[in-house]
Amino acid sequence: MVGAFMFATGIENSSPTIENGRVRVDQMERCGHYDQWHLDFDLVQELGISFLRYGVPLYRTFPGPEKFDWSFADVTFEQLRARDIIPIADLCHFGVPDWIGNFQNPEFPALFAKYAFAFANRYPWVQLYTPVNEMYICAQFSAAYGWWNERLRSERSFVTALKHIVKANVLAMHEILKIRPDAIFIQSEASEYFHAENPRAIKPAEIMNAKRFLSLDLNYGRRVSSEMYEFLLDNGMTRNEYHFFLHHQLKHHCIMGNDYYVTNEHRVAADGKTYPSGEVFGYNEITRQYHERYKLPVMHTETNLNQGPKGDEAVYWLWKEWANVLRVRNSGVPIVGFTWYSLTDQMDWDSALREENHHVNPLGLYDLNRKIRPVGRAYKQLIEDWRTVLPTQSLCLQVPVELPSQQPSLRSKKLRDEIRRADQATGQGMEQDNWQNQTTSE
């Protein structure tokens, strides 16, 4: 069993469509991972990292109804298993296959649940999952800002995308648990905050600060405020759809993964327009707000910063984020891990993937030539310094995760049987038909 703090990185695998669906922005392709995956896994090990946020883009492995192409996933996931790199399987990262269309499609949740079951059945040794990455951001960028996928700009299209995305996440968790009853789900979700810049901006800022919780409220079956309940129903969610989330949450299988960047805090004007505020509260304060709301163990699942003209800006940001992680931990919040995202530089995130400029963003631990950056050396040293120093008595260090090479084991089977019995006793072991037949088209 792995009983250590989870130092992690990730292979960026966003794949939304832009230009009205004509262009697929596949970050794995643009950053060279399909050709250099073996070297990328070498680099993960070179850093001393055991946990990797990783997944093959959904559009490549799910080319049609009841059709799956596991050719690339088979090779890469087998290599991860052979190397004892523990994947946090990232199944849907901002994009769906062309044949599904986009997140307005009411069939997406059931289709994605079938994919999640097929994935878990093919790789039963995988225990950690992020079924749908950044559900709030995915809905916001696709259906409120009009940047990706369906490219819509309305509150109704945002609520439609959000309810489909979160339902897909919930159904996928149920399906994965049929194969791995001891699966652990790490929600990677943006940690947002909206600051009112004057008294007239207080009300719009309050509304935005309520909306930021919607994806996790629904995912964890937490009742929303009366104002948010009216917002959801006014924009197309039915009472039955809302009650689906209350009745089918799997919070006891979850870790609240939260992402924090310098862009996660915003200034709000009186007319509701938002502007970047930079870091005001920081990761510690915002994470405290999320933890007080959901009372779950926490993992810092994404952060990065441009290397900068001096070459040390990203190194300093790493130090600041790690100081915040330690502050979160020392204040009594169970925090299980930290992630610099991603392993290599990325492409065109300076335009939020809205434009195909082939502009390299120097955000990685390595550049796209696979040469280590200063922040890569700093992260490697941080891991060496802190791996054995963090207090071992914390409950958050007892997350029951096993190395891929240790599975299957008798202990795993016993634990899975115990969890299955517990789920059945609490009414969580439901058959697919009971919870998938709640339609989104009432």
From TrEMBL:
<dbReference type="InterPro" id="IPR017853">
    <property type="entry name" value="GH"/>
</dbReference>
<feature type="region of interest" description="Disordered">
    <location>
        <begin position="408"/>
        <end position="442"/>
    </location>
</feature>
<feature type="compositionally biased region" description="Polar residues">
    <location>
        <begin position="425"/>
        <end position="442"/>
    </location>
</feature>
<dbReference type="GO" id="GO:0004553">
    <property type="term" value="F:hydrolase activity, hydrolyzing O-glycosyl compounds"/>
</dbReference>
<dbReference type="Pfam" id="PF00232">
    <property type="entry name" value="Glyco_hydro_1"/>
</dbReference>
<dbReference type="GO" id="GO:0005975">
    <property type="term" value="P:carbohydrate metabolic process"/>
</dbReference>
<dbReference type="InterPro" id="IPR001360">
    <property type="entry name" value="Glyco_hydro_1"/>
</dbReference>
<protein>
    <recommendedName>
        <fullName>Glycoside hydrolase family 1</fullName>
    </recommendedName>
</protein>
<dbReference type="InterPro" id="IPR051923">
    <property type="entry name" value="Glycosyl_Hydrolase_39"/>
</dbReference>
